[in-house]
């Protein structure tokens, strides 16, 4: 081994080590930013080392360097622009688009490797077959998920007669084409069938999944992206790609399991689809047969200002209104009066894993005030006010009894607090498409308004109240 090869391998080893350390740092909100920066720096070092290898080998033609430079500039520019301009409410669909880009890029590597090394009836390698299969499924499935989150594709489960049969045919086509390619009995035709069937399966897998399962779907597709990248690494013989892809695949799989457990749903049931209709059916009347009690800003201010303990339960409505800063301002005002304020964050609140944590961190909410569901529920009976801001299904007591769309789903026990204040635009359904029994609880007061406006009005009322 030459000195040059040794240095490059040591750089790749350092890059892989930094990826592992970065992932470990992301385990805590306190160190997540450092972990992200460390991983980004490691990726930059890996790309630079690969470029040095290409220059040293002198096998890349000038036009290819121009294409590489243009692609790097375009991708970096687009990423920087999106990172700076995307609204927090659009972060889930942005993550889905990133998953699509990663899966599609990995699949293209498999396509290139196949056309470069396989001809006639020579067999394709297992990494190449898996790379194209998983990458294509991730690409099309992530685009459908992004469309559902953006509202371009209906968020409710898309089912039609023969959908299950079509999915089964696509699975059989992928399996048959894969076997033909691996045994050397299939050429370009089998490869085309594999790619097209995988693209179709990505659509048929995600389309029947409802909006309520989107956090789990995003995690699953992220795991697919990592696995596809790892397979691309095996195809290219690149250790950095293998390590990075394996880390993303493994962590995404673990997160998918955690998200599924948080909803008390099996991954098989989620992929089978059918849960969640989207928040697209607002109804102004009371939920079910109960009576709804409306609050004014002054009523809410009195309850909050004279409470000893307030637990804030954020949901997607907070993100949609971009009201995290107003919420933090109100919390600080209450704390100045000696009120103990904490935040109960449900694992699947919002539209992607960690959505509420990122939102609150952006507003400067101290990390120690963020409580997980288990700890928050243990303290709920001693809580004076459960302050629900834009959350719906994750606080629905209907989950505790059988026969509903959310039965068995762990929830934040807001109804066990001494009183409840709910900020919501209307009595519209959440993703599960059912009435929320919390809204008709005698201890619950509803404040019907956009979260930003409601929090501003309540904050102003608290300021007047305390003089």
UniProtKB/TrEMBL annotation:
Membrane topology listed for this record: Multi-pass membrane protein
Domain NADP transhydrogenase beta-like as annotated: residue spans: 9-460
Any one GO cellular component localisation term in the record: plasma membrane
Record localization: Cell inner membrane
UniProt keyword annotations, A-Z: Cell inner membrane, Cell membrane, Membrane, NAD, NADP, Translocase, Transmembrane, Transmembrane helix
Membrane-spanning parts: 6-25, 37-57, 63-82, 94-112, 158-182, 188-209, 240-260
Domain of life the protein comes from: Bacteria
EC number annotated for this UniProt entry: 7.1.1.1
Catalyzed chemical reaction(s): NAD(+) + NADPH + H(+)(in) = NADH + NADP(+) + H(+)(out)
UniProt-recorded Gene Ontology molecular function terms: NADP binding; proton-translocating NAD(P)+ transhydrogenase activity
Family as reported in the entry's similarity comment: Belongs to the PNT beta subunit family.
PANTHER family: NAD(P) TRANSHYDROGENASE SUBUNIT BETA
Role, per record: The transhydrogenation between NADH and NADP is coupled to respiration and ATP hydrolysis and functions as a proton pump across the membrane.
Full protein name: NAD(P) transhydrogenase subunit beta
């Amino acid at each position: 081994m030459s000195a040059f090869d040794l240095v490059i391998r040591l750089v790749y080893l350092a890059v892989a080590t930094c990826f592992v350390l970065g992932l470990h740092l992301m385990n805590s909100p306190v160190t997540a930013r450092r972990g992200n920066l460390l991983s980004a720096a490691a990726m930059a070092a890996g790309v630079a080392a690969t470029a040095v290898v290409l220059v040293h080998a002198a096998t890349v033609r000038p036009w290819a360097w121009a294409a590489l430079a243009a692609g790097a500039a375009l991708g970096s520019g687009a990423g920087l622009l999106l990172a700076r301009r995307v609204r927090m409410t659009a972060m889930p669909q942005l993550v889905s688009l990133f998953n699509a880009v990663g899966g599609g890029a990995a699949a293209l590597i498999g396509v290139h490797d196949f056309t470069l090394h396989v001809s006639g009836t020579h067999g394709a390698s297992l990494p190449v077959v898996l790379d194209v299969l998983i990458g294509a499924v991730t690409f099309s499935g992530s685009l459908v998920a992004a469309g559902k989150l953006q509202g371009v594709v209906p968020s409710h489960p898309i089912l039609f007669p023969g959908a299950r049969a079509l999915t089964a045919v696509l699975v059989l086509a992928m399996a048959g084409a894969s076997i033909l390619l691996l045994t050397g009995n299939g050429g370009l035709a089998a490869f085309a069938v594999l790619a097209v069937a995988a693209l179709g399966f990505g659509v048929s897998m995600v389309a029947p999944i409802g909006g309520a399962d989107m956090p789990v779907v995003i995690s699953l597709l992220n795991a697919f992206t990592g696995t596809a990248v790892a397979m691309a690494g095996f195809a290219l013989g690149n250790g950095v790609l293998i390590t990075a892809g394996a880390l993303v695949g493994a962590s995404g799989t673990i997160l998918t399991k955690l998200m599924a457990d948080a909803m008390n749903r099996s991954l098989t049931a989620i992929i089978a689809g059918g849960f969640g209709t989207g928040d697209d059916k607002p109804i102004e009347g009371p939920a079910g047969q109960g009576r709804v009690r409306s609050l004014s800003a002054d009523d809410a201010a009195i309850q909050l200002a004279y409470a000893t303990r307030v637990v804030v339960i954020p949901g997607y409505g907070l993100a949609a209104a971009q009201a995290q800063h107003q919420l933090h301002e109100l919390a600080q005002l209450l704390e100045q009066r000696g009120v103990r304020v904490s935040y109960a964050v449900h694992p699947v609140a919002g539209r992607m894993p960690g959505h509420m944590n990122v939102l609150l961190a952006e507003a400067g909410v101290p990390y120690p005030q963020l409580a997980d569901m288990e700890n928050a529920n243990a303290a709920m009976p001693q809580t004076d006010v459960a302050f629900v801001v834009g959350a719906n299904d994750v606080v629905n007591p209907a989950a505790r009894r059988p026969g509903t769309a959310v039965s068995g789903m762990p929830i934040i026990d807001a109804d066990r607090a001494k009183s409840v204040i709910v900020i919501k635009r209307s009595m519209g359904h959440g993703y599960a498409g059912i009435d929320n029994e919390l809204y008709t609880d005698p201890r619950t007061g509803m404040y019907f308004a956009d979260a930003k406006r409601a929090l501003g009005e309540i904050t102003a009322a608290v300021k007047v109240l305390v003089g």
